[in-house]
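Data availability (excerpt). The following record was deposited with the supplementary files.
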Amino acid sequence: MSRTATINRQTAETDIQLTLNVDGGGTAKIETGVGFFDHMLTLLAKHALFDLTVSAKGDLAVDFHHTVEDVGICLGKALAEALGDKQGIVRYGSKTLPMEETLATAALDLSGRAWFVYRVAFATEKIGDFDTELVETFFQSLAANALMNLHLVLHHGSNSHHISESLFKSTARALREAVAIDPRQSGVPSSKGSLS
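Predicted structure:
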């Protein structure tokens, strides 16, 4: 079964087309108009082994917030749609990942219930022209729309670029683990018989 999804979202603030294949090879084609964000999404696809295409046009003259938030919404919706009823998946994933002086943990549960915990403090308010608070905005949107528990914890780090990169990479690796098919798992990985 193909685990893919295409999401189109158009509002007065953004126009986004996103395609996702969770059984891909890590190929990314990302065009959001926000260079640093494109870099982070490319890392996420590479380390999750997702094939991801994103074309986003947003009100960047205002700021980057709507574009980043709405891409998170679209990616979350695509992930939920691609996984369907989640038959046979591992469900849980976690990764503690170093990036130079930085160490971060992502832990997640594709439970069908959204929850988001963010214990991260950036060293600076910006990375180039990118507001570091938008990292939280993206992951909150992703968790809410993928209907997953997502916990992000920064253990230490002093370089804001490295902190962001460690969060995206650790989340990607945790997702890669969680979406994998477990050959020993029959049906949905829940004693309730449903992940919702």
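Summary of structural features: The chain is about 35% helix and 30% strand.
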